[in-house]
Design brief:
The chain has 11 helices and 12 strands. It is an alpha/beta fold. The chain is globular.
Length: about 240
């Protein structure tokens, strides 16, 4: 199957930004109009978007709802949304507004039954974020690091009916160091759930490497800074992914 390329739109105070290693104090602003950015990605051929409410991830509830709604109106493809989604009401609200998938991170560690309940209620709609620092799960916008190993958390949801696991190496995110392909592949091989790679994509070589492992269970890849900085051409990435 083809690898899915998810261009990323990270939202902070209504702006399109990228963070370095998840640090809110190290944010680079790339635009003031998230909807326009979504349209640009659509014009370049994207059928999927990965949107993160960064303020929401820290606050535990939506903080960029207006910007997300504008993106949903502007983009005809599938929108995957994360950031502070920790209640059934918020999950239902986003699905009602047109989000295709909801990403749950902190709540997956603190309240796994909530994830299971949502996966049953919304089949194919729940993605569990497995964010890692040095192999351990990071939560609350990556501000806290737990004592739970990544594979252990991932295995808790193998039978829950989640659509995918979103694996991010926090230490590489936004730094253009290259995606941690070995760790991503190891996770994909260790669990019976599709894995989405994230964090550190530096260029087309990362897309090639991940595409080679699509059959190992890697469903897609999220890329942000490499696109915004012009290091990765979205059209070329989509072509490589389609040939996976």
């Amino acid at each position: 199957m083809s690898l899915i390329v998810f261009p990323a739109i990270d939202l902070k105070a209504g702006q399109v930004v990228r963070l370095s290693e998840g640090d809110m104090d190290r944010a680079t602003v790339y635009g003031e109009d998230p909807a326009a950015q979504a349209r640009l990605f659509a014009d370049q051929g994207a059928g999927f978007l990965h949107v993160v409410d960064l303020d929401g991830a820290f606050a535990g509830e939506s903080r960029n709802g207006e910007a997300v709604r504008a993106i949903l109106e502007a983009f005809d493809g599938h929108v995957q949304l994360g950031g502070g989604i920790r209640t059934r009401e918020s999950v239902e609200r986003w699905f009602d507004l047109g989000v295709s998938r909801v990403v749950i991170g902190t709540a997956a560690l603190e309240d796994p039954q909530f994830v299971r309940d949502m996966a049953r209620a919304f089949p194919g709609g729940i993605v569990v974020a497995v964010d890692a620092r040095d192999g351990f799960v990071a939560t609350k916008g990556w501000a806290d690091v737990s004592d739970v190993e990544v594979v252990d958390l991932a295995r808790r949801f193998e039978d829950a009916g989640v659509a995918a696991l979103l694996f991010t190496d926090v230490g590489r995110d936004g730094l253009l160091k290259g995606c941690n392909v070995p760790a991503t592949v190891d996770l994909a091989r260790a669990v019976d759930v599709p894995v989405i790679a994230s964090g550190g994509v530096a260029g087309i070589a990362d897309i090639h490497m991940l595409a080679l492992h699509a059959r190992d269970g890697i469903e897609g890849v999220i890329t942000g800074r490499a696109l915004y900085d012009g290091r990765l051409d979205l059209g070329a990435a989509l072509s490589v992914a389609a040939a996976a």
